[in-house]
Design a protein that fits this description.
alpha/beta, Ribose 5-phosphate Isomerase B, Chain: A, 5-stranded parallel β-sheet, 6 helices, 5 strands
Length: 149
C-alpha cells in the first residue's frame, strides 16, 4: 500500500455503481483505509458523469497527495469531464500496464474506468497498479505537467 496517498476518492454515475462498490470493498480489503465513497450507491438513481467528476475534482483540490477513481459506462465521459479541471490529469484505462505507464510518464491522478467494458478483476488490478505506481519526476515530465496545469 502506498503510504504517500492521503485519500482515494471513488465515484461513479448510475452505470458504474456495481464496479465502484466492488473496488471500494477490494481496496479496503487490500489495506487502503483512506478510500472515500462519493456519490450514489443506487444504480436506479440517475446521475450525470460531469457531476460525478466534479465531486472528485472538488475533493482533490489543494491536495496533491490524493487520487481519484471515476467510473461511468464507457470511462470516456468521466475522463473528459475530469480533465476540465486544471489540477486533474485523468486517463481512461483498461489494462494494468497502461495504469503503470500513465502514472510513470504523465503523473495521472485520476483513473477513469468503463464499467460496461472492463472485467471487475481487471478493473481492480488497474486501480491497484494506479495507486502503487510512481511518477518518474524528471525535469522534462515535470515541465510538461506544468504546461497543462
Amino acid at each position: 500500500m502506498n503510504k504517500t496517498i492521503s485519500k482515494v476518492y471513488v465515484a461513479s454515475d448510475h452505470r458504474g455503481v456495481g464496479l465502484k462498490l466492488y473496488l471500494i470493498e477490494m481496496l479496503s480489503a487490500a489495506g487502503y483505509d483512506n478510500v472515500v465513497n462519493l456519490g450514489i450507491d443506487d444504480p436506479e438513481k440517475m446521475v450525470d458523469f460531469p457531476e460525478v467528476a466534479k465531486s472528485v475534482a472538488d475533493k482533490m483540490q489543494g491536495d496533491e497527495n490524493s487520487r481519484g477513481i471515476l467510473i461511468c459506462g464507457t470511462g470516456a465521459g468521466v475522463q473528459i469531464a475530469a480533465n476540465r479541471y486544471r489540477h486533474i490529469r485523468a486517463t481512461r484505462c483498461d489494462r494494468p500496464e497502461q495504469a503503470r505507464d500513465d502514472r510513470f510518464h504523465d503523473n495521472i491522478n485520476v483513473l477513469a474506468l468503463g464499467a460496461d467494458d472492463i472485467d471487475i478483476e481487471v478493473a481492480f488490478l488497474c486501480a491497484q497498479t494506479f495507486l502503487e505506481s510512481p511518477f518518474d519526476a524528471i525535469d522534462r515530465r515535470i515541465k510538461r505537467i506544468k504546461e497543462i496545469s
